[in-house]
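Hi V.,

You were right to ask for the full record rather than a summary. Here it is.
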Amino acid sequence: MTVISTGNVYLGTPFYNDAQKKRVKLAQEYLAENPTVVRVHFPFDYEFVDPEEPNPKAGIPSLKWQLATYQNDITGLVNANVGVFLYDMDNIDDGSAFEIGYMRAMHKPVILVPFTENPDKVKKMNLMLAQGVTTLIDGNTEFEKLKTYDFNSCMSNPVTGYRIF
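Predicted structure:
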């Protein structure tokens, strides 16, 4: 059977510490190996640079940067047909939660890949996130499934094993 690549993936995640950055690199490698993925949009690969702002990381970014970054991310979400979110359960990120909600509001599937540095701790997840995503792939034990997940059909795998609040 011939596999046709149709998965146009939006890869969302916080990208602030070394562990998060390492996960992104690995996710990009896994998705590149997946025969059902045609394209991956990672927002930080398309970051807007305001030429009038000499050092955007030094404080509050310019309004121009804020508006352009927001619009670029929304365009990435709209153009994707599926979202993959590397969700840091130890450092909840409002931006990722917003992007997940935006994708679901457009009736697009969302694959949630949660990670924690404390895998023995009781796992807890907000109801809106747990019931809002299409599929859960445990980041600590199943991350490599991104290599073989069928992004052409995006079959459901509901969130289980979490205390929902």
